[in-house]
Structure formats: C-alpha cells, structure tokens
Amino acid sequence: MATLSEIQALLGEPRFNWPDPAPWIELEQELGIEFPADFREIVNAYGSIEINGQLYLKHPAGHLLHSLGRAIREDLEFWREEDMAEFLPSPVGSDPGELMPVATATTGEAIFLRVPDDPSSPWRVVVQEFDSPAWTLYEMTFGEWLLAYLKGRDVTLCSRNFAPDGPFYEFLP
Questions:
Q1: pLDDT for 85-138, tens place per residue?
Q2: CA-CA distances (angstroms) from residue 168 to 9, 46, 59, 110?
Q3: Nearest 5°: phi and psi at 15?
Q4: Burial (CB count <10 Å: 0-12, 13-18, 19+), residue 83
Q5: CA–CA distance from 145 to each of 36, 73, 163 (Å)?
Q6: pLDDT of 50-99, one tens digit each?
Q7: What torsion do the CA atoms of 168, 106, 145, 121 make, to the nearest 10 degrees?
Q8: DSSP state, residue 9
Q9: Closest among 173, 167, 144 to 13, alpha carbons compared
Q10: Which pLDDT score is estimated for 1?
C-alpha cells in the first residue's frame, strides 16, 4: 500500500495537517460508510487542493465552496440521474459494490472509491471519463492510485502534460 511519505516525496510537504476527526465522523455517519484510512490520511495532510492544475481533492472541513461533503452530495445526485447511471459500472452510493464520488479533474474525469463487497476487502478506484462513456477500475487503493498519478503513470488522468517539471499542489481558493 502506498504511504503518505511516498506521496510527500513527490508532491511536497503537506501544509494542512488536520487533526480533528469530527468532520469525517459527521460525513461518514451521514453517508453510512467509513472512508478508507489512506484516503483520510492524504486528505487530512493536504486539505482541499488542486494537484498539477488538474486533480481536485477536498476535505470535509473545507469551507462551503470546497467541502468534500457538499461535493459528494452534489455528485451523488448527479450520478443518480437516470441518463447518467449508464456511464458507470455500478450505481453510486454507500452499499457494497457501489461507487462513492470523491474527486474530480479539470479534464472532465470523476474519481470514485468502490465500496468493498466485504469489510475486510480493500477499496478500489474507478475513474470515469466524462467526455465518453468509458470508465476504468483500478485494482489499487486510493493512495496507490494517487502515487501512480504523481509518478506520471496513465491512470486515466495523466499528469505529465500538466506537470512537466514534477508534481505540485495549490490550496483551493
């Protein structure tokens, strides 16, 4: 499993470092899931950021414009619309096998965490390309997927065009 230190080595030192679990607990109770530890650890370290001018990550304690909870609620509503459901391999939601929307990209991709069928199984990443009906399931944790992205590997999003000098991030305004 990818570690925060491996991500830091590529992305740089985090400057958010959120210590209070309350926003996560509130969001998880609302959604009926417990987010994977690596996702929480990364988002707690970096906060609401834009990576490589392309990938948006949001924290549940973010202000209204950049709140993970608000983004998830809006995305769940969007992806539950009848004409959008056909673009994903399974429904969105918090039940086993369903997809929880957790990030977006300026290039039109939506990043989901697939809720494991069994609580002991790992969460997986699904990336949907909004400009086409294509989606890809990555048999990796969120941390592994993000690390691959930061290394410039093709994980549907490709950072090389956006970060030719190496990965970088900025806080969302």
A1: 788 999 999 999 999 999 999 988 999 999 999 988 999 999 999 777 789 999
A2: 11, 12, 18, 20
A3: -125, 10
A4: exposed
A5: 13, 23, 17
A6: 999 999 999 999 777 789 999 999 999 999 987 787 889 999 999 999 99
A7: 140
A8: H
A9: 167
A10: 59
